[in-house]
Every structure is written in structure tokens, then in C-alpha cells.
């Protein structure tokens, strides 16, 4: 089986931005790969002028939030490190095993790699030029650049999801997320 991988553009985040950005990115991927019956729900990012769509499945929201919290905890223990969150979709195949019965195997058909560089954004050390207005301007400029980067990642997701479809296995159920998945974070 052909397994496609989408390496998303690296996002440079302050720890306070992790949750909002990862929710936006992961929910966007799930929405574009949720091949079952969805109840679309528009969600506004807290930090940016970006609206994304969730699948409307409370269990999926809970699982995504749990994985994001795992990533946040890891990033607090390992500051100033580049890392990845990987979302993988797979099929479960049964293989005939010799004496011990049936062996179950995961066959991945798609990986989404969210590249993240988390580091605290500190304003420059105090100087006579470093007024409150200057710090606010620098923060606003950085946030604007990050918003642009997040938009680029969202367009990258949409383009990949629309162009790469021939590797997706046949749908065998009507669940919101029609295939098993796993979200892996650093440990």
C-alpha cells in the first residue's frame, strides 16, 4: 500500500500559542480527511483572524486536546527545541499467523508531519528605545507573521488533501473519521 507523507511548513511558536495553532492545524487535517458524516462547526482562533472547521465530533475534539496537552507538557520540559506532531491514518489488516491465530497489522496510508519550533519570545533587554509601544509593535508584527505562516500551512493542507486522494483506501463505515488514526508527540 502506498503511504503518502505531508511535511508541513515549520511554525515558530511562543508557548502561549501552541494550543491555538495546533488545534487549528489538526482539526483542519481531520476535516479534510473525515470521509464520514460530519456536522461542520466553524471555530475562530483565539489569537488570529482565522476561522477553521471542526468535524463536530466531541470525542475527536477531546482526543486532539489530550494530545495537544501532552505536547505542551513536553515543550515545557524541553524549552527551545524543534519538534513534530505526527497525525497518521491507517487501516487494520488481519494476517494469517501460523500456530498463534490471527495477527493484526497496521498499514499506514497517510502521515501528516506538523513541524514546530517552540521558544519563548522575549522582548529585547531594557533600553531607552524599548518603550511599551515598541514592544507592542514587535509583538504585533511577529503575530502577524505567524498568522501568515498558519494560513500558508492551512493552504498546504488543503492542496495536499485535494491532490493526494488515490492512496486512500475504500471507506467501510460511516463514522465521522472513517479510518483509525494516531497522533504522536515527543515523549
From TrEMBL:
One of its GO terms (molecular function) is protein kinase binding. Pfam families: ATG101 (PF07855). InterPro entries: ATG101. It comes from the Eukaryota. The keyword Plastid does not apply. GO terms for cellular component: Atg1/ULK1 kinase complex; phagophore assembly site. One of its GO terms (biological process) is autophagosome assembly. Keywords: Autophagy. The keyword ATP-binding does not apply. PANTHER family: AUTOPHAGY-RELATED PROTEIN 101. Belongs to the ATG101 family. This is Autophagy-related protein 101.
